[in-house]
Amino acid sequence: MNTVFIAGHARLPSGMAAKSIYETLTITAEIDKKYGVIVAANCTLATDHGRQFVHQLLRGHSLQDGIDKPSETMKAHYLGKAGNALVSALHDLYRQYEHYKANHN
Question: Which stretches make up the DUF3870 domain (predicted)?
Answer without folding.
Answer: 5-97
